[in-house]
Design goal:
Blueprint (H helix, E strand, L loop, with lengths): L23 H16 L6 H7 L5 H7 L5 H9 L13 H4 L8
Amino acid sequence: MKEASWIDDTLYPDMVPPDSLTDIDDRVDFLARLCAAWDFGILPEPETVAEIRKPEWRDAVDQCRLLTSPTYHLLRAWHGLPPLPYLGQKLAYISDDPNLAHI
């Protein structure tokens, strides 16, 4: 039986989803999968967000280093980690939009 109901099974199309995420490597893998899905527009369940915002996820967030992911940078901010350079795509068609200041 699955211990952690907040783990989204759809993030694991290539393998059997884990029952729990206690190992740092498993947590980093989960965060990378979650960020990729979220960046693509697939939002996580509120329970998942609540879980990854817990202090015990801070080390995994810091080690993930998915610098091309806007979601990853959000997770760093949530955990009070120092900002790192964003290496993702900067969309030219919105970079001069004055409404960006309000987002």
